[in-house]
Write a structure and sequence with these properties.
The protein is α/β, with parallel strands linked by helices. Helices cover 48% and strands 16% of the residues. The chain contains 13 helices and 10 strands. The strands form 2 sheets. The protein has a 6-stranded parallel beta sheet with strand order 4-3-1-2-9-10, sandwiched between helices. Strands 6-5-7-8 form a 4-stranded parallel beta sheet, sandwiched between helices. The relative contact order is 0.19. The structure holds D-glutamic acid.
């Protein structure tokens, strides 16, 4: 069978937290990871720009024979996915699929919240898009009564600059966590709505009350993908399964390899491509 991997796209390194879990749960599947490191971050960019960049990446991954693409980036899922699914896919590749990370997270919230009060931490772009509150209303089966959000613009740079364990990181994490609990002190479920935030979990957990469930997306996306592939055997049959893992970046491969190893917890060898 020719290579037809699952494409995993992110604005940069962050989506590797999702890829890591996908590989753990679906080790026999082939994956092609694309990080748009040359144009990261997406979190502060406009709708039009995030849509254009994400569409370019999707077209590229289709040209690499990916029958299914996971948009691992929350910002791109929030700002571009719906347009791509509704406007572009029907004429670009009606037999292919592009999925995001917001819907699986929302479905998981519906399964675990006890009081229906949810908090979302994300980039300014994700928060401003309103995607989480909208999707929680739509797909959480009436289980969510209130959603509060908090933009955490400094968390991505803290992770990217490997400042995870520092006092600086503790200061900003504490501040944003206090802010979101000031918006709703009763919330019982907190979504880490950004690819990078799982790397800050040690800091985040210090400031979140113990009874609050913190949702990291990687594992959720992996579980929901398994479920999706079981429900769509025709798609499952089109994905090659030789356990191959390929990495591509729009920036320097050497830089990517170094930082990606931090996210993946294993050595990474990538190649540079142009979108
Ligand atoms: N991947 C982005 C997200 O999950 C964070 C990094 C960025 O802003 O590009 O929202």
């Amino acid at each position: 069978m020719a290579d037809s991997p699952i494409g995993v796209f992110d604005s940069g390194y962050g989506g590797l937290t999702v890829l890591k879990e996908l590989v753990k749960h679906l080790p026999q599947y082939d994956f092609l990871y694309l990080g748009d490191n040359a144009r990261t971050p997406y979190g502060t960019r406009s709708f039009r720009v995030v849509y254009e960049y994400t569409l370019q990446a999707v077209k590229y991954l289709f040209s690499q024979d990916c029958p299914l693409i996971i948009i691992a980036c929350n910002t791109a899922s929030a700002k571009a996915l719906r347009n791509i699914q509704q406007l572009d896919l029907p004429h670009l590749a009606p037999d292919k699929r592009v999925l995001g990370v917001i819907r699986p997270s929302v479905e998981k919230v519906a399964e675990i919240t006890r009081n229906g009060r949810v908090g979302v931490l994300g980039t300014p772009g994700t928060v401003l898009s309103g995607s989480y509150p909208i999707e929680l209303q739509k797909w959480a089966g009436g289980k969510v009564n209130s959603t509060v959000q908090e933009a955490c613009p400094l968390w991505v740079p803290l992770v990217e600059n490997n400042e995870i364990e520092t006092e600086g990181a503790a200061y900003f994490v504490k501040k944003n966590i206090q802010n979101i609990f000031a918006k709703d002190k009763e919330l019982d479920t907190l979504i880490l709505g950004c690819t990078h935030y799982p790397l800050l979990i040690g800091q985040i957990a210090r400031f979140v009350p113990e009874h609050v469930r913190i949702l990291e997306q990687g594992k959720i996306v992996a579980e929901k993908l398994i479920d999706y592939l079981q429900r769509h055997p025709e798609m499952d049959g089109r994905i090659s399964k030789t356990g191959r893992l390929k990495f591509q970046t729009t920036e320097s491969a050497d830089n990517f390899n170094e930082k990606a190893a931090l996210f993946m917890g294993q050595p990474v060898v990538s190649e540079t491509i142009h979108l």
